[in-house]
UniProtKB/TrEMBL annotation, chains A, B:
Organism: Arthrobacter ulcerisalmonis
Catalytic activity, reaction form: Endonucleolytic cleavage at a junction such as a reciprocal single-stranded crossover between two homologous DNA duplexes (Holliday junction)
Low complexity biased stretches: 144-157
First-listed, main subcellular location of the protein, grouped into a coarse class: cytoplasm
Pfam families recorded: RuvC (PF02075)
Note describing how the cofactor binds: Binds 2 Mg(2+) ion per subunit.
Quaternary structure and partners: Homodimer which binds Holliday junction (HJ) DNA. The HJ becomes 2-fold symmetrical on binding to RuvC with unstacked arms; it has a different conformation from HJ DNA in complex with RuvA. In the full resolvosome a probable DNA-RuvA(4)-RuvB(12)-RuvC(2) complex forms which resolves the HJ.
Disordered, as annotated region: 144-174
Gene3D superfamilies: Ribonuclease H-like superfamily/Ribonuclease H
Top EC class, one word: hydrolase
Name under which the protein is recorded: Crossover junction endodeoxyribonuclease RuvC
Domain of life assignment: Bacteria
Entry EC no(s): 3.1.21.10
Length: 174, 174
């Protein structure tokens, strides 16, 4: 969870990693994720949720599990009327480090610096999540709630941005 | 939704197909599915939910969408403490028609006969869903709520079946 100001200054609000065990049944694992995302969304009421867009680099069985979990997260946001944005790992790396092929260490280092943290977020998944949130805010326009799940949706028209800003303001006012 | 008696006699309770449009954003499509499954589970309070296990025959982008939707469905069942069972398409075809490589027409025809329906369920997805439900009940033991999402979980030990039967009875008594 990050707050991003209009001048692109980003501040960490909270970070968490939800873990499940391969020994749990699939339904129990998805339940753990469902309950966790509900709690995070209800506690922090974000303007937008960013989810990693998974691509064909992965094999089918890995994609299945990741996609099932992401489906739960996306539906949880949709139930609350919170827009969902998706970005690929290379978009995230490019936004945060300047290179779409940066390694995990570089992402963690830059996330630590951008958020002015005293220590690097651990595990690496936490840094990845923060990088994804920063990426969305920077690509969509600082602090805007603008997002869709359509392809290539990160570039907003001025009208979309104005609408998104108004939406974000209305949300904060509630 | 089917009721299956101990003698394997199966009766259709209800059938439905939830459709979404490719023109809707992903989050809206998953929301439609989430709301529909919530309504079905709350209205019919099934003993068990059977979900098709998707395998690597599909390409990655098709798998993604199917997996995201199945994640939403599985989590909805898990939230309610309803066990989830998964069966592959060939398990379903084999259970209903006797052949793991039967075509859609054969599945529809047999489902219509097994459920003693006056007309074939339409669209084919509806017949597939009914076939999956029948398959689960027949494989798990008639009317049993037994199910897990682990691999190869359809074959129950006698102890598991006894437990499942007791569970199913307790559920009906509520």
């Amino acid at each position: 969870m990050v707050d991003v100001e209009r001048n692109r200054r980003a501040t960490m609000v909270a970070v968490g990693v939800v873990g499940t065990s391969p020994e749990q049944t699939l339904d129990q694992r998805l339940l753990v994720i469902a309950l966790a995302i509900d709690e995070w969304l209800d506690r922090h009421k974000p303007d937008v949720v960013a989810v990693e867009r998974v691509f064909s680099q992965m094999n089918v069985s890995t994609v299945m599990g990741v996609a099932q979990a992401s489906g739960v997260v996306i539906a949880a946001a949709a139930r609350r009327g919170i827009p969902v944005a998706m970005h690929t790992p290379s978009e995230v790396k490019a936004a945060v480090t300047g290179s779409g092929s940066a390694n995990k260490d570089a992402v963690t280092k830059l996330v630590t610096k951008i958020l002015r943290l005293e220590a690097a977020p651990r595990p690496a998944d936490a840094a990845d999540a923060l990088a994804l949130a920063i990426t969305h805010a920077w690509r969509a326009g600082s602090g805007a709630a603008a997002a869709t799940t359509g392809p290539g949706s990160s570039a907003l028209t001025p009208a979309q941005r104005a609408w998104a800003d108004a939406e974000a303001k209305a949300r904060r006012g509630r």
